Amino acid sequence: MGAAGSKLEKALGDQFPEGERYFGLENFGNTCYCNSVLQALYFCVPFREQLLDYYSNNKNLADVDENLLTCLADLFMQISSQKKKTGVIAPKRFVQRLKKQNEIFRSYMHQDAHEFLNYLLNELVDILEKEASAAKSDQETSSPTEKIANGPTSVRANGVKKEPLVTWVHKNFQGILTNETKCLRCETVTARDETFLDLSLDIEQNSSITSCLKNFSSTETLNAEDKFFCDKCCSLQEAQKRMKIKKPPHILVIHLKRFKYIEQLGRYKKLSYRVVFPLELKLSNTVEDADAEYSLFAVVVHVGSGPNHGHYVSLVKSHNHWLFFDDENVEMIDESAVQTFFGSAQEYSSNTDHGYILFYERVSNGSTS
Fold it and tell me: What 3-state class would DSSP assign to 23?
């Protein structure tokens, strides 16, 4: 990597961002799914900063039982504190911990990067919630509880139910969807909110992220066997249902559903469809914060023609430069090269490098609560 590293330093020259580190990650036998996601998360600056804060506030991580959060904090610290600007790091401890903890990732088979990202973020949330509740129970050995039919619920002194804990992972990635169902008989609208850490979108040939988001929020009619039980009518009724983004997250992660189960084949097939993802994205179908604006900063790319084999790489925007991370190798690319990863307009194409997970950050002219 020495030569490649110095090549990157030469390419950036005096534009090399102060204090930044560009390190490739060693592959431990089909761990590219993990490396590509880790690079995207490392260059998700608010997440990285909060993880490094966590590290500095828990300096005695050696005394804490090792978990995925401590291993990730340790890896990010290792990268950010390197004396050299470029090079290669082996994320050995992190990968070992991942395999130890989840048998899905134990084999040397091709894994799914989205499945890994989803597992990692949920695992980090679980660890932070457990730490917070352990710290709380240390502070107050007995807290008032209210007996209710389905178990005790902690209450505040004035009897108000407590809100669930919002961790810094939530603050970065969590948004709220609202599922609206309108009874076509009495026109009552029932709304149910649910949180999300990423959005999985169905894709179509020659489409765009904007059209995929429109389809995600399109109205669906529930009839025949799918009728909706309306509480007001006290019976099954025809209804219209749609999903809207109620509260957009600070970091919007979009997963393009490129792997589809084909019943006739009895297996998954990769959809190489061309889906245009813009560098700047405006969310218009939101309930709150209308016209939330986002800027693309990372793309995890799946390389290969099928779901069970292939490779993952990532494209990352850092200090207005685009970089290409392929395990140990890191190189600069032109911004215009990003569009070569949209997908193929024809079904059979020699280009098999397709954008799979997109990372957008909210731009600050909107509220970034």
Answer: strand
Q: Which residues, at least 6 apart from 209, have a Cβ–Cβ distance to it below 8 Å?
A: 201, 254, 275, 276, 277, 278, 281, 358
- Residue from 114, 302, 311, 321 carrying the catalytic annotation: 311
- d(CA 91, CA 111) in angstroms, rounded, equals 17
44 carries an active-site annotation: no
* Active-site residue (options: 32, 34, 44, 230): 32
CB-based burial label for 277 (10 Å; 0-12, 13-18, 19+) = buried
Residues 34 and 106 sit within 8 Å (Cβ to Cβ)? no
What was the pLDDT predicted at 345? 87
Active site residue 170: no
**What is the SS3 string spanning 67-101?**
CHHHHHHHHHHHHHCCCCCEEEECCHHHHHHHHHH
SS3 assignment, position 293: strand
Averaged pLDDT, groups of 10, the chain, 369 residues long = 72 89 94 97 97 86 79 96 95 96 86 96 95 79 45 43 79 96 96 96 95 93 94 95 93 96 88 96 77 94 89 97 97 96 84 95 63
Reading the block at residue 38, the tokens are 């880790």
Residues 6 or more apart whose CB falls under 8 angstroms from that of 17 comprise 318, 319, 321
For 215: left if phi > 0, alpha if psi spans -120 to 50, otherwise beta; the answer is alpha
